[in-house]
Amino acid sequence: MADRLIINCNPTAKALPFHAGLAQGIFERRGIALELVSTNSSRAQRDGIANGDFQIVHVAIDNAVSMRDDDGVDVVAIMGGDPGMNELIVTPDIEKVEDIRGGRLFVDAPDTAFALQAYRIFADEGLVRDRDYEVVAVGRGELRVQALRDHPTRSSAVLNVPYSLETKALGMRSLGDTTDYIGPYQAGSAFGLRSWFRDNGDLTIRYIAAFVECLAYVLDPVHQAACADLAVAKLKIDPSMADEAVRLLRVPKYGLDPIAAMDRKAVENTLALRRFFAPESRCGAPEDYYDLSWHEDAMKLLRGHAQ
To answer: Was domain 87-182 assigned CATH 3.40.50.2300?
Structure first.
């Protein structure tokens, strides 16, 4: 009998491995009955983990840092994922970062992850939050896209694929990849309650192994057309953008990491970014927020099956 597992992720292009895995029976072959859900904001994702609504969430690791340090919830990341694939998107009237002065920044949640990236980018240009620009929390990607549409001047947001493609098609401007401004960044991660992983070690290992197999399927150019079709059907990505969205997932050091690895240097930079805006933060060492022992066992499992 398969083990039931509820996973939460945002419905961006980065969710494609889940849909490919479900369509190809990858999770089922690992003895996992996977249920995929999404929520409107990272705050709701954090609350859902704490409440046991799902067991694992795939979202920026900064959310795990916030849960551990600010909320006192003992969560831990078990794998990485990607550097964010984030771009600073602005309305057409903005040509450079300093032009955002007097405008607004639309964010998911104001205290974590990609919002902090924008704060740092703006601060480096002398812009001070709440003095030089307004921060407006609206929720996940498509809600930030809608906010930009509703406020077509002096507005900005950090967005990734497919929303970055969608906004540019609407005439918005990209001021570049956020990592071009702030350096290496650990965005993608999978985390949950440390106690749950300890109590369900075998399932955790099988899940990681299955997810890496899903990554292999999506990142194989042979499956480009099939993945583009999935992106349209499951993620509602515009057909005209689906091919490009899938292609971007394969770009080295921009898209999905082939084995969902964790980059320690990038985590250090993520923590440094948090300390910059919250000097009172109790941020510890990178290893305080992740445990890769299950990932290591999953890779052994995969290598054993490949022999």
So the answer is: no
Ranges of residues in the chain whose predicted pLDDT is under 70: 279-280, 305-307
Tokens of residue 131, six digits: 């003095």
In three-state form (DSSP H/G/I as H, E/B as E, the rest C), the secondary structure along 172-237 is CEEEEEHHHHHCCCCCCCEEEEHHHHHHCHHHHHHHHHHHHHHHHHHHCHHHHHHHHHHHHHHHCC
pLDDT digits (tens, 9 = 90+) for 208-259: 999 999 999 999 999 999 999 999 999 999 999 999 999 999 999 899 999 9
CB 35 within 8 A of CB 18: no
Structural domain boundaries of the chain?
Answer: 3-83+186-306, 87-182
The torsion region of residue 176 among left (phi > 0), alpha (psi -120 to 50) and beta comes to left
Report the alpha-carbon distance of residue 101 to residue 22 in Å, rounded: 45
CB atoms within 10 A of CB 116: 23
Positive or negative CA dihedral for 135, 141, 146, 152? Answer: positive
Q: Which CATH architecture has domain 3-83+186-306?
A: 3-Layer(aba) Sandwich (3.40)
Point out which residues pair with 32 in neighbouring strands: 3
Cα gap 13→180, rounded to integer Å: 21
Query: Which DSSP helix (H) or strand (E) runs through 7?
Result: strand 3-9
- What is the DSSP track for 106-117? EES-TTSHHHHH
DSSP code string of 280-305:
T-----GGGSB--HHHHHHHHHHHHH
| Closest-CA residue to 164 (of 219, 62, 263, 238) | 238
Strand 3-9 to 75-79 pairing: unpaired
d(CA 186, CA 38): 21
